[in-house]
Amino acid sequence: MQNWFKLAALVLQISIIAQVFAIGLGTTWRDATYLFRCPRLLWNSVLARNVAVPVIAILLIKAFSFHVAIAITLGVLAVTPVPPLLPKSQLKAGARSEYVLGLLVSQSVLAIVLVPVTIELMDWALGAQAHFSAGQVAQLVVKAILVPLATGMLAFRFLPKLKPLAPRLLTAGSVLLIAGALPLLLVAWKTLGTLSGNGAMLALALFMIAGTAAGHFLGGPAAEDRTVLAIATSSRHPGLALAIAGANFPGQGKLVAGAVVIYLILRTILAVPYVRWRRRAALGIRKPQARAHLSPGFAGRRW
């Protein structure tokens, strides 16, 4: 069974790298550096993802008496950057590419400093003793996000004929993602009974709902940016979370892995009402413009 999980982890890594490379095939340097040129939007994203969410996690850990693996899961998820595959769904939904990709890049770069600092602050608040160095964070985000994205960007710049491969890479990566996730779903199912008591599911739901609210209210003046930051704030990097947990709490590894998968499932479900609400709101705003200026069917392609 252990070999199956190692194979699943490898398949997931290949899937993520392939899809991030494909995203890079449509990314420009201007997109990637957008938030570094917009300090207010950059600060709002840091305030939502790197300040509000850790505070929410600390409050939930102190308020509930759930299994220690749930506490660890909330803690490690709270410190992580944007997950590498989130931009794919946001770009597909029509969000501003420069904001989505700028958020991915800025969060990945800043994570090298912010993740270790946030862990230390959470240690102080919770009386824990977890550690994860800047070098460890850099190794993960550079390998899984920055290098494949930069490689895709360079290919887009110097080998533009490769751009039509992006949809195929995204499809192949999605298939691999599903295949690699199956063993993790089994882990989640086996650990559900152990983890689900004492308000654990409620705490995970509150973690995501509060994160969505923080991102929404700090997303800036543009409605579609608020939607992007709201979804990004409730979305955490599961691979980095598991790495931090494994380095500090090896005895809880299986249960934390199950809890992270449960979080991913709940996040997917709980995001649906918010996204539908935002789409309806966007359609209501754009309908008059659509009739006057746009061809039928265009309205609604963006949030």
Task: Give an overview of the whole structure.
With 303 residues, the chain is mostly helical. Helix content is 78%, strand content 0%. It has helices spanning 2-24, 29-32, 39-63, 68-78, 86-92, 97-126, 134-158, 166-195, 200-217, 223-234, 238-248, 253-293. α1 (2-24) packs across α8 (166-195). Mean pLDDT is 87; it is low at 289-303.
Task: Provide key terms for this protein.
303 residues, Na+/H+ antiporter like fold, 12 helices
Map the helices and strands.
Blueprint: H1 2-24, H2 29-32, H3 39-63, H4 68-78, H5 86-92, H6 97-126, H7 134-158, H8 166-195, H9 200-217, H10 223-234, H11 238-248, H12 253-293
User: What percent of the residues sit in helical stretches (DSSP H or I)?
Assistant: over 70%
One letter per element, helices H and strands E, the order comes to: HHHHHHHHHHHH
Structural class based on helices, strands and sheet pairing = mainly alpha
What is the class in the CATH system? Mainly Alpha
Distance linking N and C termini: 42 Å
Q: Beta-strand percentage?
A: under 5%
Task: Give the CATH topology.
Answer: Na+/H+ antiporter like fold
Question: How would you summarize this macromolecular structure in one to three sentences?
Answer:
By secondary structure, this protein is mainly alpha-helical. Helices cover 78% and strands 0% of the residues.
